[in-house]
Design goal:
It is a single chain. The chain has no helices and four strands. The protein has one domain. A hairpin with a 6-residue loop joins strand 2 and strand 3. It has 67 residues and is mostly beta strands. It binds zinc ion (ZN).
């Protein structure tokens, strides 16, 4: 028997200077209005706010359907 390989568990956050493990839109943890799309293998930059501050980027889930 072989277990399923869950590849959806790839790290979806990263600090500035780290490597993006998963393509998609990311937001700055301090500025949730800042959304930047990164590709897998990209290096996470500093957030452009506050003259560029080191931050943690978190992948953005699909936007809520209803409002
Ligand atoms: Zn920020």
């Amino acid at each position: 028997m072989r277990s399923q390989n869950a590849s959806s568990d790839v790290t979806a956050t990263g600090g500035s200077g780290g490597t993006c493990q998963r393509s998609g839109p990311y937001k700055c943890n301090s500025h949730t209005e800042i959304i930047v799309v990164f590709q897998r293998g990209d290096r996470f930059p500093n957030c452009p706010m506050n003259n560029g501050h080191a931050t943690t980027w978190s992948i953005v889930r699909e936007p809520p359907a209803d409002r």
